[in-house]
Amino acid sequence: MSEVESKRHLWIEKGYEHFALYGPENLSINKISKDVGSSRASFYHHFGDVEIFIDELLTRHWHIIEAFNKLGKEEFKVLIPDLYDALGEYTIPLQFNLQLFHHRSTPGFNYLFIKSYESSARSFALELFAKHLGLTQSDSDVYHLWLTLGEAWYSRLDPDDLTSGTLQKFAKEIIQNLSVFTNSPLYTRLRKTV
After folding, report:
1. pTM value?
2. CA dihedral in degrees (55, 60, 64, 70; nearest 10)?
């Protein structure tokens, strides 16, 4: 990697961390430039403007999601603890996804959040989820339950405590509630209306 490519890569890595930790509304080129050890002029040389930079951060996140999905497909045998142990090791990407979740009013952020959640579901998570709950419903019904778990789970996350134990605790609580819900008359009625 050339020095120019290396510096560009460093900008993306540090920008990715800043986006994850502070959110897109607090993305500061001045702060990132201090972490990178370069001037703002260096930033504009590599990216031109902040929107192009954010697109690069979103692309970086998508590549991380693809790698995580490959890991999940190859290594995860059960939903709990395998998925949540791995997520506990991927704290910056998890925080990045949490920022996307909290900023879904921005179409690009919402689209990437949905795409990343769906790709993980299709790659490995739905199978583990269905097995964990003993679900025999259609793939569509299982996917809707998985979305319900995800919405509730992300809404509970605290960026200051993304330990595997906490992630598992939230998942177990929500799954318990889902289990009760899937045995309810309301769920039966809702499944019949399409």
Report:
1. 0.93
2. 90
Q: Which whole-number Å values give the CA distances from 138 to 28, 130, 144, 176, in the listed order?
A: 46, 10, 10, 20
* 70 CB-side CA count, 13 A: 6
Euclidean distance between CA atoms 194 and 178, whole angstroms: 20
Q: Which of 159, 174, 168 is nearest to 83 (CA)?
A: 168
Q: What is the pLDDT of residues 21-80, one digit of tens each?
A: 999 999 999 999 999 999 999 999 999 999 999 999 999 999 999 999 999 999 999 999
Best CA proximity match to 48, nearest among 57, 60, 58, 40: 40
CB-based burial label for 35 (10 Å; 0-12, 13-18, 19+): middle
Find where tokens 């919402």 sit.
110
Kindly report, residue by residue over 116-131, the tens digit of the pLDDT. 999 999 999 999 999 9
Strand partners, 161: 158
Identify the structural domains of the chain with CATH numbers, from first to last: 3-192 (1.10.357.10)
135 in the Ramachandran plot: left (φ > 0), alpha (ψ -120 to 50) or beta? beta
